[in-house]
Structure to design on (548 residues):
């Protein structure tokens, strides 16, 4: 057990009523060092979101172990050391933007964790002018920025993101990716990022965990050796494209390993 | 501004949803809005007058109904207040109890299994049948009438609030879980506000119902001396139809005012909810 990494050992999980021969997660072994940006990518049903929820302490598992910086996922949540950005922004519609961002500092005060000034957070995501507006007055991209600001609000040791940009248009998505990287570099937190976009994974990550489906397994872990910051020249350069091709090839073989006709229908 | 980052400048490019308050004021003044209603009212008035002139024992002339309302408005106001206070007290007791019980049931499943069947039985029992027994138990004062009204308003609120407390999106619950929010924090910061649209929808049903409850209670609880229900019963017994219809008109106005009140409340409290948003297309 180590203080400076997330360790997943022999993690297996079968959903109730699921096929026990094809668990949602099958003997997952994974190491994520502190302050790393790691993406989980794979075909539908590979269990990447399930793995994220297990690391978040939101779901139980059958066998194996998960330790997060020498602690358990639940104890990490008790200490408010985990930030979560779900696929939908999951804002409280009756609170304005500022109050939504301040929400984590208002619940579970027992943890005694200090938090960032909400106005400062909103400045960092470029939403200081929207502080008094309500979620229904915002575009999808603005809502997701509020959700990101909220998750960074406690300076979490671990930030979990479940396809946070999948519902956005490409232009907004790329802008938010750069913004996220800026925040991450400043906050130096560990990020586990679930995505189904190869480009997104390569742009953002230090490491890409390629998973295969049925059963959900780690197929391959690919390091991304691109320099940071990942701005214009890096993102359009030939190394980037070579890496994208490498990830695609890996995904292809992962998909062939666990493919069934259902996979042809995108969920 | 030269210092703004490229990301920031893009925020203007994302089309924000339409701001609140964009609805046009004075739309009620357009003929297209009020004319159909006005025509319908006039047609009903004509039909009424024709019937009243032909068969005065069926309907009183509208002029007479209006005349007694104008002649002695205090009489109607006093009786309306008597009925209204029963209705409001009944709603306060019935809806209040239902709300508290729904909160308790959402947190304690055992309570839910204990209370729900009883609530259902209470709901299917005709309250009119209970009323005479309540009069025997509590006399001719306000108490039995308030109880009748409370019983009528109890169930819709219980069901709606129970549904509302459960209608919380899973991702938001996950965010609360990763913050390790306590049950009470989840209840009061998340579940109760989420249930507000359901609670107000219940009140929209229950406020007019409370007037029905109060009037029925007045019919049944013989011996009471005030209230529009009592007035209707006594006037009908002496075939003074103009009083009956004047009282009915008062009841209708009360119902409309209550609905207006709820609509204002909904605009205020649910400005963030889909039900209050005008489509922009």
């Amino acid at each position: 057990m180590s203080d400076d990494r997330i360790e997943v050992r022999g993690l297996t999980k079968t959903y109730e009523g699921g096929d026990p021969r094809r668990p949602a997660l099958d003997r997952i072994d994974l190491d994520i060092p502190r302050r790393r940006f790691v993406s989980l990518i794979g075909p539908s049903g590979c269990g990447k979101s399930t793995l994220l929820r297990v690391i978040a302490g939101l779901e139980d598992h059958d066998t194996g172990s998960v330790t997060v910086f020498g602690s358990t996922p639940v104890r990490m949540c008790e200490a408010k050391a985990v930030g979560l950005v779900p696929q939908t922004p999951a804002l409280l519609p009756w609170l304005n933007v500022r109050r939504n961002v301040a929400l984590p500092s208002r619940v579970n005060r027992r943890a005694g964790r200090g938090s960032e000034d909400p106005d400062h957070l909103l400045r960092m995501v470029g939403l200081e002018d929207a502080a008094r507006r309500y979620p229904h007055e915002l575009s999808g991209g603005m809502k997701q920025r509020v959700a990101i600001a909220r998750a960074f609000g406690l300076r979490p040791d671990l930030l979990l993101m479940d396809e946070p940009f999948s519902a956005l248009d490409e232009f907004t998505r790329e802008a938010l990716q750069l913004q996220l990287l800026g925040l991450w570099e400043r906050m130096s937190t560990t990020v586990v990022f679930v995505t189904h976009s190869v480009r997104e994974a390569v742009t953002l990550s230090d490491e890409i965990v390629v998973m295969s489906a049925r059963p959900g397994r780690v197929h391959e872990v690919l390091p991304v050796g691109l320099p940071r910051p990942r701005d214009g020249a890096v993102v359009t350069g030939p190394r980037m494209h070579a890496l994208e091709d490498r990830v695609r090839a890996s995904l292809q073989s992962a998909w062939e390993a666990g493919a069934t006709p259902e996979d042809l229908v995108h969920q | 501004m030269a210092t703004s980052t490229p990301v920031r400048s893009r925020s203007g490019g994302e089309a924000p949803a339409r701001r609140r308050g964009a609805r046009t004021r004075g739309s009620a003044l357009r003929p297209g809005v009020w004319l159909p209603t006005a025509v319908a009212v006039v047609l009903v008035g004509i039909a009424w007058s024709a019937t009243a002139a032909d068969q005065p024992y069926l309907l009183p002339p509208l002029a007479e109904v209006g005349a007694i309302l104008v002649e002695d408005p205090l009489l109607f106001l006093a009786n309306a207040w008597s009925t209204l206070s029963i209705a409001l007290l009944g709603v306060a007791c019935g809806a209040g109890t239902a709300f508290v019980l729904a909160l308790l049931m959402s947190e304690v499943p055992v309570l839910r299994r204990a209370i729900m069947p009883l609530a259902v039985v209470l709901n299917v029992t005709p309250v009119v049948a209970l009323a005479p027994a309540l009069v025997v138990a509590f006399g001719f004062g306000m108490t039995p009438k308030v109880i009748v009204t409370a019983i009528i308003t109890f169930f819709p609120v219980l069901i709606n609030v129970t549904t509302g407390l459960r209608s919380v999106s899973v991702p938001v619950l996950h965010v609360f879980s990763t913050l390790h929010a306590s049950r009470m924090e989840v209840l009061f910061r998340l579940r109760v506000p989420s249930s507000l649209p359901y609670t107000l929808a219940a009140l929209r049903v229950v406020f007019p119902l409370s007037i029905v409850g109060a009037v029925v209670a007045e019919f049944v609880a013989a011996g009471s001396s005030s209230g529009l229900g009592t007035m209707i019963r006594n006037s009908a017994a002496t075939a003074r139809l103009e009083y009956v219809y004047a009282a009915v008109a008062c009841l209708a106005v009360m119902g409309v005012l209550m609905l207006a009140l709820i609509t204002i409340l909904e605009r205020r409290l649910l400005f963030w909810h889909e039900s209050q948003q005008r489509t922009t297309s």
